């Protein structure tokens, strides 16, 4: 405490590396540099300095030996962390914990949780957070994929996956509305929130020269209910079946409808299938009635032939008729034959795999890892379509997307700072290119849906943001593109 008012003229920095740093560790030159650096830091002039000096100042703040006011000590600790965490990454794990401890000690648990890596914010599942802040149909498919189990990629899916994704996302809103009708929410149906009281030891790994008592904290944790996996998996399968019917395909995949709310399938059929037909019927309207036009001179009549010959030819002509029942039966038989052939080919593939030891081993490994994980597992194993961790494939898709952008669209992405662009800046840029902002963004997202199967940018209040799932990959491709150009 006797050093809290000490000042020092400018002096040379002297390196320091010590553990649990106290003033006893400093020689005369290091002491002078510390006092000078500290006095500049108080002026918010954060010069480069060794980690041990910062830790020493942190200890002064924790012990309230430099200043007795709690608000000052917390505020100064935040300043030090924010300004030195890039220079010293290890600083964050110490100062974040100590900041939380200081706030718990001051009976400010809500503020403490912001800095506490072990508290509720750390344990909130990403889907819960997204549902809490976004419309359900705006959530990325990369997040939904984690809750879809035991789905084997079909040929129809490969050809129409974007349509299936759109049907699925719109169906999430229908599912949400049914739960709301039953006085519930998706969050209530899918997540269970638990709160427990724990004893927290304060200021571990710190030098503390004052009396500190442990404290009680309430820890919130989230567990996923079985309903989440069951509803999302079967909703996705049902979305594929609905999309098949919309495309005139009668063959359906298996859906465990008992795991979905009553009436969901009917509402989806009404919304997608009947709605599409009604839209088609009303899409074309008569704009002008057909009128009788003036006729010119008549076309000369065909030269007359021998009446007897004409009658004979007419008698020889057989009358053409169409048997609707026969045609329908033929189409049905053909469809059954195609389905039978496909099933036989599937059986042949299974037999072939059974005779090939290497393929059998691969198949066993795939099957073993594709089941629903236990409650202790957090990440399921997916079939080919859900291999969202395939970095090479994602990189290629991102490069293909980036290559499809126009010059002004490439310029647009260079305006983002930390994946965020203010709408005012965006509109200013768009006006220079004589376009409308919504149309411009829709054009970019249309290309991203083609290559990435998802939107890459979205409007968020007063700004435009790049979707978190694509942020790092997009920045890598941007840097590569800028280097090449």
Describe the structure.
The radius of gyration is 35 Å and the shape is elongated. A 3-stranded antiparallel β-sheet has the order 3-5-4. The chain has a two-stranded antiparallel ribbon with strand order 1-2. The protein has 485 residues and is mainly alpha-helical. Helix 4 packs antiparallel against helix 5 and helix 11 runs parallel beside helix 12. InterPro entries: TerB-C, TerB_N. This is TerB-C domain-containing protein. Pfam families: TerB_C, TerB_N.
Features of the shown structure:
485 residues; mainly alpha; Arc Repressor Mutant, subunit A; three-stranded antiparallel beta sheet; two-stranded antiparallel sheet; 20 helices
The N- and C-terminal alpha carbons lie at a distance of 59 Å
Helix-strand pattern: HHHHHHHHHHEEHHHHHHHEHHEEH
Strand order of the largest sheet: 3-5-4
Structural class: mainly alpha
Quaternary state reads: single chain
Fraction of residues in helix: 55-70%
Main sheet overview: 3 strands, antiparallel
Average pLDDT taken over every residue: 78
Unreliably modeled segments: 276-299, 313-322, 351-390
Strand content: 5-15%
Short note summarizing the structure:
It contains 20 helices and five strands.
